[in-house]
Every structure is written in C-alpha cells, then in structure tokens.
Amino acid sequence: MSAIGIIATLRVQAGKEEEFEGVFAELAPAVRAGEPGNSYYRLFRTGEAGVYKVLECYDDEAATEAHRASDHFRTLGAKLGPCLAGAPEIERLTAV
Amino acid sequence: MSAIGIIATLRVQAGKEEEFEGVFAELAPAVRAGEPGNSYYRLFRTGEAGVYKVLECYDDEAATEAHRASDHFRTLGAKLGPCLAGAPEIERLTAV
Questions:
Q1: Cross-chain Cβ contact B57/A55 below 8 Å
Q2: Tens of pLDDT along B13-38?
Q3: Long-range own/partner contacts, residues A68-73 (CB < 8 A, 24 or more apart)
Q4: Is a pLDDT exceeding 90 seen at residue A46?
Q5: Cβ of A42 and B95 within 8 Å?
Q6: Nearest-CA residue of chain B relative to A45?
Q7: A56: domain range?
Q8: What's the number of domains chain B is made of?
C-alpha cells in the first residue's frame, strides 16, 4: 500500500494565532513520537494571514486512523477547535 | 531563520506519467542524500489525473538555492520539463 500524504489547511481566527501555535507546539512532537505509522507532521504559515498548512505523511490508512483516534490528537485537537475560523480543508495525496 | 516549506504542483502530460515518475525516482533520493539543508522531499499523486504535488522542506533560504543549483536538480529537472503540461506552481510556506 502506498503511503498517504495530507495537506490540511487551517484558518485561524484573528488574535488566536499565538494560542493556536502554542497548542500545535505540543501536538506535533506528540504525533511524531507517539505514532509509529506517521513519517511527517509539520505546521507551516502560508502567505495569507491566519492561514496555516499542516504537511503530513502516514504509512497507510490504518496509520491515519490511529492518528485521529490518538489521545494526543483528541485532547489537543479539542483545544485547536476554538481557535479556528472554519472547518479544516483536507487534501489527501498518494505517495508515488 | 525559520525553515521553508514548499508545495510544488506539477501537471504532467497525458501518457508521460510513467516517464515523469521514473525521473523523480532518481531525483528524490539524490535530493535527500545530497542536500544537507533539505529535510523533506516527497512526490505524491493528487486526486486529479496527471497532477502531482511535491512536499518539500529546507532549513533556510540558502538551502533552497543549493537545491536549485544542484547538479542532480539541473540534470534531472531537465528531463522532467518535457513531461510537464505547464509551468510548476510553487507555494512557499514558513515553518512555525
């Protein structure tokens, strides 16, 4: 099975950027350290204010499910939600 | 200086996908092995036929310049060009 890439686009409410980045600073290392099926997970600012992209890669579908079901994602994800200005946009990719 | 992320979107001519992927199979390991300032470089198929995205990360601006100036990028990039249906779209990101 091919690895799965994800580009997650997150729009953060004005004034919530610092809080959002702070939660992510806890989440990203937890993902990398705690999910053996994750091979990449990094947060980036885009050229548009308040718009972020997370670049992610997982070994397979089960690894993406393990990510969503993880304690760290559920706990810290719940803290990210109130920072967002809308639902995340998720683009799924297939590694070549 | 923050690390630099890049999402490069490449549209490949119909029928040239196999040739394109073959060149990339040489290029990606050369980037990862030969560029100390590169920390990620991986090719993905998107949900749209013939459209690929490369997810990339570099330590700094100098590392992006070293990538573009590298022998492997210049040599293998020249082989990718004839496979493409248009100019690559490059989105630059800033690591948080």
A1: yes
A2: 999 999 999 999 999 999 999 999 99
A3: A70/A30, A70/A31, A70/A34, A70/A35, A72/A26, A72/A27, A72/A30, A72/A31, A72/A34, A73/A27, A73/A31
A4: yes
A5: yes
A6: B94
A7: 4-94
A8: 1
